[in-house]
Automatic annotation (TrEMBL):
It is found in: Cytoplasm. SUPFAM superfamilies: Cystatin/monellin. The keyword Repeat applies. InterPro entries: CYSTATIN_LXN, Cystatin_sf, Latexin. Belongs to the protease inhibitor I47 (latexin) family. Transmembrane segments: none annotated. Gene3D superfamilies: 3.10.450.10. The gene is Lxn. The lineage of its organism: Eukaryota, Metazoa, Chordata, Craniata, Vertebrata. GO terms for cellular component: cytoplasm; extracellular space. Hardly reversible, non-competitive, and potent inhibitor of CPA1, CPA2 and CPA4. May play a role in inflammation. GO terms for molecular function: heparin binding; metalloendopeptidase inhibitor activity. PROSITE patterns: CYSTATIN_LXN. The keyword Ligase does not apply. This is Latexin.
């Protein structure tokens, strides 16, 4: 097993760190906050014969709403050789405490539960980059859910990020969960492709974010 030190700015290091950040965001994100990669501190790549490349990473995450709220992380990301259908293995450790968002999450939950008709919105952020304050939790929820989609569809040579929510519609439910149907745009930084993607998202303050179905949409789906 050969271990090579990579410059933190190396493109493969930043792709692996962005994937780890997306995975952590899915596991720990909520309407109250989103986690994004701020910078990579250290990166090493291990070549495991017959298995794939494993990246050993140290990086900093920031809150998408409060950029001065940061946390240090370490992660290992294993990309499997040749198997395009297998999501990378990600293991991570967060050093220190994440911001407590229980209060913000509960405020959002109760607000949506009390709506007389199901929430619908589009183009978040708008073409000027603006997100209305009442849509910030909807965006943070999409950010966490897209972390799952990014993790499941990433390879060593890709780097996805949520660019925009094209449409979101709340789905009526009879249980305690909130359900939203999203159409999002994912930006793939390597090819510069903008990819429309559908995802159905369940959320409850006690149970976190779950993506129950998702799939790439044809380009003309946005017309």
């Amino acid at each position: 097993r050969a271990m090579a030190e990579l410059p933190p700015s190396h493109s493969s290091a930043s792709r692996a760190a962005a994937l780890a950040a997306a995975y952590i965001s899915h596991r720990h994100g909520s309407p109250g906050h989103g986690l994004a990669l701020r910078d990579v501190r250290r990166a090493r790549r291990e070549d495991i014969d017959g298995i794939g490349h494993k990246y050993h990473l140290e990086f900093v995450l920031e809150d998408i709403f409060e950029r001065d709220s940061t946390v240090n992380c370490t992660a290992e990301v294993l990309y499997h050789l040749g198997n395009k259908n297998s999501a990378p293995d990600v293991q991570f450790t967060i050093e220190g405490e994440l911001k407590n968002t229980d209060e913000a999450d509960n405020v959002f939950y109760n607000r949506i539960k009390s709506l007389k008709k199901e929430l619908e919105a589009e183009n978040i952020p708008d073409s000027y980059g603006n997100v209305p304050p009442e849509m910030q939790p909807i965006r943070a929820l999409a950010w966490a859910a897209s972390g799952y989609v990014i993790w499941q569809n990433s390879a060593e040579d890709t780097k996805y990020q949520l660019a925009q929510i094209k449409r979101v519609k709340q789905v009526k439910r009879t249980d305690e969960y909130l359900e939203f149907d999203y159409v999002i745009l994912l930006h793939e930084n390597v090819s510069q492709e903008i990819i429309p993607w559908q995802m159905t998202v369940l959320w409850h303050p006690q149970h976190g974010v779950a993506v129950t179905q998702n799939g790439r949409l044809p380009e003309h789906a946005l017309d």
